Amino acid sequence: MVAFVDFCRVEKGLSANSIDACQRDLARLAAFCQKACNGLLPDTGELLAYVDLLYKQRLASRTIARHLSTLRNLYAFLLREGKIDTDPTAALPTPRQPRPIPKYLNTEQVDALSAAPSDRPNGLRDRAMIALLYSSGLRVSELCGLVLSDLNVEMGLVRVLGKGSKERLVPVGGEALALLGNYLSAARPQLLKGRGSRYLFVTSRGGRLTRQAFWKSLSANAKKAGIFHGLSPHVLRHTFATHLLEGGADLRSVQTMLGHADISTTQIYTHVVRSRLRKTLDEHHPRA
After folding, report:
1. 85-113: per-residue pLDDT in tens?
2. Spatial distance between the Cα atoms of 18 and 194, rounded to a whole number of angstroms
């Protein structure tokens, strides 16, 4: 198991979040093996029983699909390493994944959210982070992992290390740059109190702001702005992509800025735009 995790981390280049999820899946599998297989790896019949157990536990279809992906990757690794002779995962079912239309904010909600943080140093930091998310469509892990040298204010670019350790350059809008400049000149020094940090977004203790902490502050600011419960940073990423496409941006450019390896992942946002066009037609055309 340890060798497989190292393989996923080093050779497959999975992100820290993906590694954490993989380890949780393996821990669940190991617990099943102790009870049902005397600690041995399950064969085809036992694997089917394991998957049936996952369904009985009423796990989300996405979670089950991730479990199955972990199992397939594990057995493929073991087969390649010569630890097993056959791959029993071929008989496993593949759950159909729904493609829900992503949640996103309208421009009025974005304005309200941007105005919600306080004028204290941590509020100025949060406002800059919200503006950067909406301006550049970063993942929250990418946002919190930024270091000072990643931001080029003069060129209006941010260097992002995305999934699979793939680097990309993303433009930053003028409003976000202004808020970032205000944060860097006024709020960040107050938070650090003379301490040093290589990270762009810091806490009052001088450490890097974690994605969990930012998610919590974003939810609090969303509540102040009167936006739906449980707003996640990923909604701002969805909003960034949706507003770009509504404004006429081409899909390939949006794919590049989001850091999607496959354009089919980006195409989900075209469904958002089409659904809005349908609503516009139904509401405003006299013979709709």
Report:
1. 888 887 777 766 666 667 889 999 999 99
2. 35
Amino acid at 114: S
168 is annotated as an active-site residue: no
* 48 CB burial (10 A radius; 0-12, 13-18, 19+): middle
Assess whether 199 carries a catalytic annotation. no
Instruction: Name the DSSP class of 41.
Output: P
**Residue carrying structure tokens 């899909």:** 251
Active-site residue 284, yes or no? no
Q: What is the pTM of this model?
A: 0.65
Amino acid, single-letter form, for residue 52:
D
Is-catalytic flag, 99?
no
The Cα–Cα gap between 157 and 203 comes to: 23
In the numeric block, which tokens belong to residue 244? 């770009």
Rounded Cα gap, residues 194 and 238, in angstroms? 37
Q: Which of 67, 127, 237, 238 is labelled catalytic?
A: 237
